[in-house]
């Protein structure tokens, strides 16, 4: 299942004026990617400032000092505490949520038009997940990015997405506005996904009469 | 008498020059056939408590009574024998098993090590265990890496119940599963609890699941008990700061629907 938001109100087209010539979209520059496990996507032996700066340097043609300045701004934007010393930190010195903030900073360092978040919050605890979702929502709005948010959690996808596409066995089962998918799904599989959601107001599975304590 | 009684448990880790109490003076008890959930954010001490209860790590302070015995005093053979009564299921069954083993081998080990069934009897016991967890006996010769994640977690449960435990520690045991598979595994756990009167120490960060299947819940914050009580009472109206934060952070379909409706989208 995946959810997609279209950030902002302006329909985006390739900006011919911004680049010297039109190009085919390139990963890292035009498309930012955030994966589930930031420990696996960050280089464990490279300071995080360099990991963010090299994206900007590679794709935007900035000098190293310009790239580091940009990395510092990005660390501020993803609300990492003390960005100056964070630039020199290594991934193992950060918590899981902080690492995911760094991965997001690196993903948006070249100013992509499309941000793909593949289960980007699934490995995080609920509170950190809510913080990262709020961060993604803010960055997408501020930068006018399109967000492709891939998740197995339909409740989470619904909080973030304007439209939801439901997949099963490699096939697109249903695609629609979030309200329609959640409130009036057309497909039985979508219904089953919604029914499998265990929320804070779902009828409990446990029958209390069963305990002989 | 409680099945498991944990008193004033403390476990400290050293980080550089500092000592951090991952678990700080935690006490709780579990009754036979009961599910007690431990919830809290990352680093709140949930898994450390699980590992101390399983005696994978030793606490710095505190007492654990299991089935009436001083569990921390048990050594070697006595500890191994008692471990049959205290089983575990972890989040990632692929990491918990030898990936090259077959399903039969994984289930044969506990039956052999704990002397539960003779060599000739074991294939029949393995088939019965597989059927008990909703699998078929023809899965036995398959390799662990060949079967699906849901099947693998069922095999992990079959391995756990092979030694007829009175308590199973479930550490994020359903967190990595697809939502539809998760529902089936939760139903299986409840069914086993009803039939065999197994108690669960259920560790999760998912308050929805805890509210659905646990009798009681302990909310942990930085190694300490922040809140403790009936699962539905606590989650429906949390009193502690961490309880309120956990509840506020849980995604909610109804809240989203109401927001969309009030925004006038269609």
Notes on the protein architecture:
The complex is a heterodimer of chains A (213) and B (266). Chain A has 213 residues and is an alpha/beta fold. Chain A has a domain at 31-153: P-loop containing nucleotide triphosphate hydrolases (Rossmann fold, 3-Layer(aba) Sandwich). Chain A contains 9 helices and 6 strands. A 6-stranded mixed sheet of chain A has the order 2-3-4-1-5-6. Chain A starts with a strand and ends in a 17-residue tail after the last helix. With 266 residues, chain B is an alpha/beta fold. Chain B has 2 domains: 4-85 and 165-262, 3-Layer(aba) Sandwich (Rossmann fold); 94-164, no CATH class. Chain B is built from 11 helices and 10 strands. Chain B has helices at 46-53, 76-83, 93-96, 103-113, 122-132, 149-161, 179-196, 207-213, 231-236, 241-249, 253-262, and strands at residues 4-15, 18-30, 35-39, 61-66, 69-70, 86-89, 167-171, 199-203, 216-221, 224-230. In chain B, the strands form 2 sheets. Chain B has a 6-stranded mixed sheet, sandwiched between helices. Chain B has a 4-stranded antiparallel sheet with strand order 2-1-4-5. In chain B, α4 packs across α5 (122-132) and α6 runs parallel beside α7. The relative contact order of chain B is 0.16. The chains are: A alpha/beta (213), B alpha/beta (266). At the A-B interface, α6, α7, α8 and α9 of A face α7, α8, α9, α10 and α11 of B.
Draw up the topology in text:
The complex is a heterodimer of chains A (213) and B (266).
Chain A: E1 2-6, E2 31-34, H1 38-41, H2 48-60, H3 64-77, H4 83-86, H5 96-107, E3 114-118, H6 126-143, E4 146-150, H7 154-160, E5 163-168, E6 171-177, H8 178-183, H9 188-196
Parallel strand pairs in A: 2-3, 3-4
Antiparallel strand pairs in A: 1-4, 1-5, 5-6
Chain B: E1 4-15, E2 18-30, E3 35-39, H1 46-53, E4 61-66, E5 69-70, H2 76-83, E6 86-89, H3 93-96, H4 103-113, H5 122-132, H6 149-161, E7 167-171, H7 179-196, E8 199-203, H8 207-213, E9 216-221, E10 224-230, H9 231-236, H10 241-249, H11 253-262
Parallel strand pairs in B: 3-8, 3-9, 6-7, 7-8
Antiparallel strand pairs in B: 1-2, 1-4, 4-5, 9-10
């Amino acid at each position: 299942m995946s959810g997609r938001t279209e950030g902002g109100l302006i329909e985006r087209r390739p900006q011919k004026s911004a680049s010297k010539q039109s190009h085919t979209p390139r990963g890292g520059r035009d498309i930012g990617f955030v994966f589930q496990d930031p420990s696996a996507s960050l280089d464990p032996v490279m300071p995080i400032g360099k990991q963010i700066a090299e994206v900007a340097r590679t794709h935007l043609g900035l000098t190293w000092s310009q790239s580091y300045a940009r990395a510092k701004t990005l660390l501020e934007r993803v609300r990492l505490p003390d960005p100056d010393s964070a630039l020199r930190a290594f991934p193992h010195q950060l918590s899981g949520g902080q690492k995911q903030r760094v991965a997001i900073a690196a993903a948006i360092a070249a100013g992509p038009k499309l941000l793909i978040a593949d289960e980007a919050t699934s490995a995080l605890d609920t509170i950190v997940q809510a913080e990262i979702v709020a961060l993604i929502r803010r960055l997408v709005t501020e930068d006018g990015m399109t967000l492709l948010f891939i998740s197995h959690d339909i409740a989470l996808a619904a909080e973030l997405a304007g439209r939801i596409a439901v997949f099963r066995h490699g096939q697109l089962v249903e695609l629609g506005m979030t309200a329609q998918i959640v409130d009036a799904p057309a497909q039985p599989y979508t219904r089953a996904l919604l029914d499998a959601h265990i929320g804070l107001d779902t009828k409990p599975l446990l029958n209390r009469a069963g305990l002989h304590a | 008498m409680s099945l498991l009684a944990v008193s004033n448990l403390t476990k400290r880790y050293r980080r550089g020059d500092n000592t951090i109490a991952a678990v700080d003076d935690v006490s709780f008890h579990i009754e036979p056939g009961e599910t007690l959930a431990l919830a809290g954010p990352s680093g709140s001490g949930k898994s450390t408590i699980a590992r101390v209860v399983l005696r994978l790590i030793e606490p710095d302070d505190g007492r654990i009574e299991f089935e009436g015995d001083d569990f921390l005093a048990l050594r070697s053979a006595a500890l191994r024998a008692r471990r049959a009564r205290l089983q575990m299921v972890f989040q990632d069954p692929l990491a918990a098993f030898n990936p090259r083993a077959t399903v039969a081998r994984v289930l044969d080990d506990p039956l052999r090590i704990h002397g539960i069934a003779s060599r000739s009897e074991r294939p029949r016991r393995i088939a019965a265990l597989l059927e008990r967890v909703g699998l078929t006996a023809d899965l036995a010769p398959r390799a662990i890496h060949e079967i699906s994640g849901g099947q693998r977690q069922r095999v992990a449960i079959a391995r756990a119940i092979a030694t007829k435990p009175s308590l199973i520690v479930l550490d994020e045991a359903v967190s990595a599963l697809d939502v539809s598979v998760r529902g089936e595994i939760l139903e299986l756990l409840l069914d086993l609890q009803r039939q065999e009167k197994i108690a669960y120490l259920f560790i999760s960060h998912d308050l929805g699941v805890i509210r659905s299947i646990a009798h009681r819940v302990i909310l942990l914050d930085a190694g300490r008990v922040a809140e403790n009580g009936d699962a539905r009472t606590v989650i429906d109206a949390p009193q502690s700061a961490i309880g309120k934060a956990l509840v506020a952070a849980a995604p909610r379909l109804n809240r989203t629907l109401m927001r969309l409706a009030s925004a006038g989208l269609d």
